[in-house]
Amino acid sequence: MKEFPKFMKICIIVFSVIIIFTCAFFKSLKEGLTNNDNIVLIGDSVLNNSNYVPDGKSVVDILKTKTPNIFNYAKDGATINDCYSQLDKIPAELNKTGTYIFISAGGNDILNKHEQLDSQIISQQFNKYMEFIKSVRSKFGGAKINVMNLYLPTNPRFQSYKQSVKQWNQLINEYSSKVGEMYNVINLDTLLTTPSDFIYDIEPSETASQKIANVIYLTP
Fold first, then answer.
1. Which terminus of the chain has a smaller tally of CB atoms within 10 A, N or C?
2. What angle do CA 35, 36, 41 make, to 5 degrees?
């Protein structure tokens, strides 16, 4: 039998290694977080939309079908200031590498400033937001912090917020690189983009619940 040339042997080995690593990657991607990991939710109705969807169809309900360790402190209508009381409720023993904290805040603060939307106001609100994120990092330095950026509802009446949402999301990205390992960004602005993603024009729908829960569960 004729022996394979050395070059062919090397190609086969390299190809085999690529297949092994690819399979391992997609296996981990499909499985997502494990039952030993803890998911902590802080913020507003983006993470707690139970007031707007049928029973069993909220973000929290869907997450509970994937993993048991869900700690939900998010509240409908919460502002950045409200998040501090949510933070205070999180047990100290969750400060460990197996904890994934997800934060959605800032949207209601911007909505409450609807008559004063300008670059300076958005910057001021974002500074408040960053102070809260730093508080989370200070208290839960062992956890993995993930922040949700802001989406823009498809209803035309919210187009006046487009520039503010864009500025906010740019700041989130800029600060994530400036402060190093402070947080990971989850881009809701590219995840929720169709009318079916919203109910009552602005709240996350059943469809959005599934999308948000999936992206949380598959967070690396």
1. N
2. 80
